[in-house]
């Protein structure tokens, strides 16, 4: 994981780099599939989230979205413990008022 553009993260999955941004649409997609973000963030902080939650959060925040099941397969291959810090960081951006910024 590395930070790049303001309010975005990069994640390497399956040998490719993906830019993740918690946009308004991404947050709406997360809430539609998983419920409220506050409860999800509390569970994530306690380590109580799994592959489904990780897949939804990463998929929703992908600047160029892959198929949902492909994202889950890539996360599983990468390892949940390696991907979970990125998920926590994305949730933090969502909860701290991440603002979309223009491209550099």
What does this entry look like structurally?
The protein has a three-stranded antiparallel sheet, with helices on one face. Strand 1 and strand 2 form a beta hairpin. The chain has five helices and three strands, in the order E-E-E-H-H-H-H-H. It has one domain. The model is unreliable at 1-5 and 100-104 (pLDDT under 50). It has helices spanning 24-34, 37-45, 51-61, 68-78, 80-95; strands at residues 2-3, 9-13, 16-20. With 104 residues, it is mainly α. InterPro entries: Phage_TAC_11. It comes from Paremcibacter congregatus.
Summarize this entry quickly.
Pfam families: Phage_TAC_11. With 104 residues, the protein is mainly α.
Q: Span between N and C termini?
A: 20 Å
How much helix is in the residues? 55-70%
Q: What amount of the residues lies in strands?
A: 5-15%
Give the structural class. mainly alpha
Outline the biggest β-sheet: 3 strands, antiparallel
Overall 3D shape? globular
Rounded mean pLDDT is 86
- List the domain count as a whole number: 1
Number of helices, counting only DSSP H or I runs of 4 residues or more? 5
Which ranges are low-confidence, i.e. pLDDT below 50, for 5 or more consecutive residues? Answer: 1-5, 100-104
Strand order of the largest sheet: 1-2-3
Strand tally is 3
What Rg, in angstroms, do the CA atoms define? 12 Å
- Helix-strand pattern: EEEHHHHH
